[in-house]
Design brief:
3 domains, Beta-Lactamase, 382 residues, Multidrug-efflux Transporter Regulator, Chain: A, Domain 2, 11 helices
């Protein structure tokens, strides 16, 4: 809230709209209270707008809360005007804070037996509605648990506050964490330890979401780095396709793909009359082979779809791929005509996501136009 220079002898004032927002009491309701009870009294200069003293804000909030609990307005307004010179929080208020805190809270007496003296509202782990007086060792999981060791350590040493893990108080399968610390000893009272839950389901969900977000971020970074490498590869191959021709460009392209994609081997087979003719490969693991496309259903399906995919061991072996390795086939097509097949051999198969398919499509298109160009050149020579 910005400081407002318009003040009077009663202190700083703010506009009615701001006062209503600050206290949760509408302007209309404030005027009703003013007419009926003379509270709160706004400050006005002549016929100017109402302005309320900031010092009245706490009283208005107190009256609103009392009214919400069924206290008559006249009595609530009268009570709100009684303010002690030294404000203090009543014991009942402190007890209510802990009772209604949205986290399990216990007071445990010890060191033996370890017995619950008091438990707040959200804690419903015990058979009876009131957990007070029940021994903790009545819980089936308590003996030998981290919670038992923590409590005994606090009773038997000068250790500071300790954290511990234990099953959820509500008897569910989730794990929970609590903070335990010694309370001051008063005359005639047993030594006690306070136990407060510090690991709620919402906190665990938040941590899981944070872990998942970090995992997604790492995946995005890896994808970005891979895209940069693949774009550089596509640019290098495009430059080569423009200035090289014949078998030389096919051989250098296969060698580049092996190095850039961490492949075991790569080769380019030319399609002729229903067969794929593979002469040699970059690392000499594949070829020379003539493979009939219709002899392998997966190879036929890839050629018809014009999309890259993993070959079966039988189809990969037909091109000479050793057992235990995995062959990726990328059809080379131009305007619907199949000109050949790019074959890549890897140690392990990887998922063909959209980025991988786009890169392989770019490489396939470049190889396709290179093969078509060479075919046209040979035809013109004839």
């Amino acid at each position: 809230m910005r400081y407002n220079p318009r003040v009077d002898k009663s202190g700083q004032t703010i506009a009615a709209t701001e006062f209503a927002s600050l206290t949760g009491v509408s302007r209309e309701r404030l005027r009703t209270w003013e007419r009926r009870f003379g509270f709160p009294l706004p400050r006005r200069s002549g016929d100017g707008p109402r302005r309320y003293a900031l010092t009245d804000a706490a009283r208005v909030v107190a009256v609103r809360r009392a009214a919400e609990q069924g206290v008559p307005l006249a009595r609530a307004i009268e009570a709100s005007g009684v303010v002690a010179e030294t404000p203090a929080v009543a014991d009942a208020t402190l007890a209510a804070v802990v009772e209604h805190a949205p986290t399990p809270t216990l007071i445990v007496a010890g060191p033996t037996p370890l017995q619950v003296l008091w438990a707040n509202g959200p804690l419903r782990a015990f058979p009876a509605d009131d957990a007070a007086g029940q021994p903790l060792d009545g819980l089936p999981w308590f003996a030998g648990s981290d919670l038992e060791r923590t409590l005994k350590t606090l009773f038997s040493s000068n250790a500071p506050a300790l954290e511990c893990a234990h099953p959820a108080w509500n008897g569910g399968s989730d794990r929970a964490r609590s903070l335990a610390w010694r309370l001051p000893i008063r005359d005639g009272e047993p030594p006690t330890v306070a136990l407060v839950g510090i690991d709620r389901a919402q906190d665990r969900r938040t941590r899981r979401e944070l872990v998942e977000t970090r995992r997604e971020l790492r995946a995005l970074r890896r994808r970005e780095q891979r895209q940069e490498r693949w774009l550089a590869l596509a640019a290098a191959l495009a430059e080569r396709f423009q200035h090289e021709a014949g078998d030389a460009v096919l051989a250098t392209t296969a060698d580049t793909l092996v190095r850039r994609l961490s492949a075991v081997d790569a080769g380019i087979a030319v399609y002729m009359a229903g067969e794929l003719a593979l002469g040699s490969s970059s690392r000499a693991l594949l070829g020379p082979r003539m493979v009939t496309v219709t002899g392998y259903a997966d190879l036929t399906a890839l050629m018809q779809a014009g999309q890259p995919g993993w070959l079966s061991p039988a189809a990969g072996g037909a091109f000479g791929a050793p057992g235990g390795l995995h062959s990726l086939a990328v059809p080379i097509t131009v305007v619907g005509e199949t000109l050949g097949m790019l074959l890549l051999v890897f140690d392990e198969p990887t998922e063909l996501d959209d980025d991988a398919r786009q890169l392989l499509t770019v490489v396939s298109a470049g190889l396709g136009f290179t093969l078509l160009r060479d075919r046209l050149v040979e035809s013109s020579k004839g």
